[in-house]
Amino acid sequence: MATRTTDSPTAEDREFAFSASDYDYLRAMLKEKTGIELGPTKHNMVYARLAKRLRKLGMNGFREYIEFIGSDAGGDELGTTLNALTTNLTKFFRENHHFEHLATTALQEIRARAVSQGRRLRIWSAGCSSGEEPYSTAITLLRSMPDIKQWDAKILATDIDTEMVRRGTAGIYPAAALEGMPADIPRKYFEPYGEDKVRMAEEARNLISFKHLNLVAHWPMKGPFDVIFCRNVVIYFDKDTQRVLFDRYANLLAPGGFLYIGHSENLFGITERFKLLGRNIHRKIA
């Protein structure tokens, strides 16, 4: 999960009336429902993402749209609004040093523990967007663990955006998304799918369960997880929400489990339950 850019009209060019109070309402609603903080300067972004919904619904302005999503009749539209306002930009093997650490260190430690604790492996991709992160994780497992079929190995991939969950489940991507990968990865783990598209190989898809999840709401899973990816997600939350979130992650991680966070994120002043190993790689210590 990370910032996506979009062409945003200026106030003079706007087709629909969009007042400061309209923006403040949407900003407060997003914080209440998802924990995500929108800055005070995102008016144009919000307008650009929601104006298409007003057109489709035949509405005259944002006040009418706000009244609609707050009504019983607009319950489904509320989910569409949240999907539009959450941000999704990702790619395969983004911040690749995390996957290198997973292959060379985390999985080796988990394998060593398996002698006494059994061949169980659980990884969570929290804020998985359209699936590139959990599929990169699945490929890393398949390349690093030739005996993966002999393990009880599962990857949980969650996101608040239901459309991203749908895309991840489908596992279909533009062929251009494979550019820059080592040659063996496209050959082994992707298959042609229509014109200029590819689909993840079945063995990778079978490792992952995609689920809708709001990180600031109830978590149905029990853990423990050996590894959690939460990258470029918490930058959208205030410090208090971050403290709660990382405490919950620590509670679900196995002793000594690993946490990967984004390059612009850090845990300083947020939690003392993790030890920094380097390059936004943390180990649970409490």
TrEMBL record:
Its EC number is 2.1.1.80. This is Chemotaxis protein methyltransferase. The keyword S-adenosyl-L-methionine applies. It comes from Ferrovibrio terrae. PROSITE patterns: CHER. Keywords: Methyltransferase, S-adenosyl-L-methionine, Transferase. S-adenosyl-L-methionine binds at residues 88, 90, 94, 133, 159, 214-215, 231-232. CDD domains: AdoMet_MTases. GO terms for biological process: methylation. Residues 11-286 form the CheR-type methyltransferase domain. Methylation of the membrane-bound methyl-accepting chemotaxis proteins (MCP) to form gamma-glutamyl methyl ester residues in MCP. It catalyses: L-glutamyl-[protein] + S-adenosyl-L-methionine = [protein]-L-glutamate 5-O-methyl ester + S-adenosyl-L-homocysteine. It comes from the Bacteria. GO terms for molecular function: protein-glutamate O-methyltransferase activity. Pfam families: CheR, CheR_N. InterPro entries: Bact_Chemotaxis_MeTrfase, Chemotaxis_MeTrfase_CheR, CheR_C, CheR_MeTrfase, CheR_N, CheR_N_sf, SAM-dependent_MTases_sf.
